[in-house]
Amino acid sequence: MRILLIEDDSLIGTAIEQALKDTHYSVDWVSDGQSGLLAASTQDYHLILLDLGLPKIDGLKVLKEIRSNRNHIPVIIITARDAVEQRIQGLDAGADDYLIKPFRVAELQARIRAIIRRGQEASSATLTCNDLTLDAAKGVLYQNGDPIALSAREFAMIRLFMSNPDRLLNRNYLEEQLYGWSEEVSSNAVEFIIHALRKKLGKDSISNIRGMGWMISRKQS
Q1: What is d(CA 200, CA 193) in angstroms, rounded to the nearest whole number?
Q2: Which pLDDT value is given to residue 21?
Q3: Considering just the CA atoms, what is the radius of gyration of the chain in Å?
Q4: Is the Cβ–Cβ distance between 3 and 74 less than 8 Å?
Q5: How many CB atoms lie within 10 A of CB 55?
Q6: pTM exceeding 0.70
Q7: GO biological process annotations for this chain's record (predicted)?
């Protein structure tokens, strides 16, 4: 899961970024409203964490601009602005949640999980392809009904493939979805995860077109 963090306080930003990475989220962190708006409009994210007191462009204006572009990505406001009127203003502008600083990182993570669950319920919490069934709500992959033990990155990758069956996914796309900007990605990181998945699911579970990418193909019944 890829998260955009828009926060100008270096101490808070560092703490949030590290905590989310420790729970296997991919995080891109920018420190002003202009950069945040650019990232939100040019990159694909599952969630935005948005401070309001930002340099260059105020966070509330960033949120309104995101929504005016018909971008429905979930947004959690994280701010010290605690007046009831300010909370109402943020929610009316299109925020999905409003968290007042200071807060415990554990509470932020719980709110992120709640928004993820709502999104899964609104779309589909279960993906099926061939002999694989992925239960996104439980975070479990089944093969022929048996649960398969996966790391967080393995689960994230197989979910990408199962969400895009018969679609070739190239290295750049997979790296963007699995890693944040500040993370160092080794040249064979994608191959390493795919190798681990094939070892657990079977060598033919993920096919490769050399030099182009990888995919899961639906088998004809």
Answers
A1: 11
A2: 85
A3: 19
A4: no
A5: 11
A6: no
A7: regulation of DNA-templated transcription
CA 172 to each of CA 110, 137, 160, 180: distance values in angstroms, whole numbers, following the listed order:
30, 27, 13, 12
Token pair of 23, please? 């729970």
User: Tokens in use for 93?
Assistant: 């502008």
Encode pLDDT of 113-163 as tens digits. Answer: 888 777 665 555 688 999 999 987 678 899 999 999 998 889 889 998 998
Sketch out the chain's domains with CATH numbers.
Answer: 2-121 (3.40.50.2300), 126-215 (1.10.10.10)
Secondary structure class of 102 (helix, strand, coil): coil
59 with 5: CB under 8 angstroms?
no
What separation in angstroms does the CA of 21 have from each of 25, 43, 123, 155?
A: 5, 19, 25, 15
- List, as one string, the DSSP characters of 131-189: TEEEETTTTEEEETTEEE---HHHHHHHHHHHHSTT--B-HHHHHHHHS-TTS---TTH
- Are 29 and 52 in contact by the 8 Å Cβ rule? The answer is no
- Determine the length of the chain: 221
The residue behind tokens 């050399």 is 210
Does residue 27 contact residue 3 with C-beta atoms inside 8 Å? Answer: yes
